[in-house]
Amino acid sequence: MSYPVLFAPGMTPAIIDVSPYWRPPAFADGVVVADALCRYGARPSLPGEVNVSTAAVARALLFRMATTNERLEAGLDVPNPHEEAARYACAATAIGA
């Protein structure tokens, strides 16, 4: 296994982008489809067309919603939370949730 390492003059090298746990490969497919539904106007039929399970897309949407919520609670910038919520609602509707 390899990890990206960040180097900077005068600083100790730092390992970045570490995933401390394993996720099933279907989760990655779900993230791609969920993002396509949320952000890129993909057709609601996309999950079936690319053979990605509803469960994988639902888990990815939950992950995206949770991280958006964490950013809001931490006071970090979320450009338009209402627009973001509408995107998630459209994606959830597309998968029948």
Give the beta-strand count: 2
If helices are DSSP runs of H or I spanning 4 or more residues, what is the number of helices? Answer: 4
Spatial separation of the terminal alpha carbons:
37 Å
Largest sheet: 2 strands, antiparallel
Mean pLDDT over all positions: 88
The side-by-side strand order for the widest beta sheet comes to 1-2
Quaternary state of the chains: single chain
Summed up, the domain count is: 1
The ordered H/E elements are EEHHHH
Q: Fraction of residues in helices?
A: 40-55%
Judged by helices, strands and strand pairing, the structural class is mainly alpha
- Which consecutive residue ranges, at least 5 long each, have pLDDT under 50? none
Net shape: globular
- Using only C-alpha atoms, the radius of gyration works out to 17 Å
Strand content is under 5%
Organism: Cryptosporangium minutisporangium
Protein name: SLH domain-containing protein
Structure overview:
It is a single chain. This protein has 97 residues and is mainly alpha-helical. It has one domain (24-94). Helices cover 55% and strands 4% of the residues. It has helices at residues 25-39, 46-49, 54-73, 81-94; strands spanning 5-6, 14-15. It has a two-stranded antiparallel ribbon. A hairpin with a 7-residue loop joins strand 1 and strand 2 (14-15). The radius of gyration is 17 Å and the shape is globular. The N and C termini lie far apart (37 Å). The model has no long low-confidence stretch (mean pLDDT 88).
